[in-house]
Amino acid sequence: MTSVNTLGALTHRNILKSLRNPDIVVFATAAPVAFALLFAFVFGSAMEMNGSAYREYLLVGILAQTMLMTSTNTGIGLAMDNKQGMMDRFRSLPVRPVAVVTARANSDLVMNLIVIVLLTLVGLAMGWRIRTGPLEAAAGFGLLLLFAYALSWVSAWIGLKVRSPEVLSNVSMLILLPLAFISTAFVPTEGMPAPLRIAAEWNPVSAVVTGVRELFGNVPDAAPISNVLPLQYPVIAGVVWSLLLLLIFVPLATRSYVNSHIR
Amino acid sequence: MTTHFVVDTATLTGRSLKHITRSPDTIITTAFMPIAIMLLFVYVLGGAIETGSETGRAYIDYMLPGILLITVAMGISYTGYRLFTDLRSGIFDRFHSMPISRSSALWAHVLTSLVANVISVAIVVGVALLMGFRTGASLLDWLAVAGILAVFVLALTWVAVIAGLSASSIEGATVFSYPLIFLPFISSAFVPTESMPGPVRWFAEHQPVTPIVNTLRDLFAQQPVGDDIWVALAWCVGILVGAYLTAIVIYRRTIT
User: Fold this and answer.
1) Which of B241, B231, B175 is nearest to B207 (CA)?
2) CB contacts < 8 A (A, B)
3) Chain A CB within 8 Å of residue B190 CB
4) Which of A95, A170, A191, B75 has the maximal Cβ count within 10 Å?
């Protein structure tokens, strides 16, 4: 069995597992939809941007926040497999270590794609529109998925280290919620206090969100030009952040998988 | 009989309060989420939100009343949980085999909830003061705030009692609080209702949280409270009476 076949089989297994458990998609979509409605129609109406402009600004932030939150599924899935003894079975098979983790990340990428489609439909119903051409739009979705894929590997590494799905879930929320909110996902950085503004401007989420907004043509008219490098070239910064995360966490997660049976 | 009830309730409340002092994490977790929301709204989102309030008035002054209601809504989920675990552990059956006033077991949980929520609210107000919350409210205003919050706590606690008595799982005993936690978000707690679109605005202006929030905000700001205070009290007392009567009926069914 070739590496590609092995990877395909393992990815297929994980996708089937997720599809047979549709509450994963429901929960992954329900919370962001609630957030989108709350921010668009309750808080958004009192934002300094006018309502419709804020809705366009917001939806990309919601998409990015969702990618952050769903990335935990990779780590939780691996931790569950570890707990249930599935990893030991994989180790007894002629399967390359990287394939097991890659398959998990790949299957979650497919699930993320489903979630993005659902959220895009909700966004369109709310009045959000992509103001650029199909190529830029595809690049925007591509950047979101690349970032989600990179985050899946971070989650995979944590999942293989922690090995308890419950602990991972709680730890992830403590890390991811500040990452999502202390960024340009929901509001521009201008109104934030100086230390938070600096953190938000250098937050990878801000680069990705601003980059996707540029690609979708959702940048507000009165948006000030940022003097921070990642927000001056957000698309490049978003890609660089994602590749950097992959470069660091693919080897780390693979090594953690190899070493996890020793403990 | 009345003395009997008071003594029994006091004894059982003491027992319930011991549970809280032995696991203070319930109070800490109750206060943690509202504080996190407060930090988020004040330091991250607050700078972009226009409340229409007079210039120089901090956003934290505007939003604190809503945060206090969220704190209460989070706190009462533990009442449902504690009552459910007591019922399941069989301790209520023991109480009923003793010469104890029947309803004192419920009232003990209610009063414990009141004490726990007072502590949680005090923690949240303390953090708000550190974050810049300021009020020129007089002692009388503070007493009015405390009174409204106490009636609100009692009203929601009896709702929690219904959940605790009728739930078939721990999740069922606590899940009722989620809509109550969410309700302040669709009210005047964080943004003025005038800025909301039609249907959302209508809902926000006709739900119980908005008049309570407006009353607390006016009391803190030393503004005339107008009709809001009566609407707020009507909601609180209405929920309290309705929930109390329902809880007593369910309780009688449960113990017979």
Assistant:
1) B231
2) 57
3) yes
4) B75
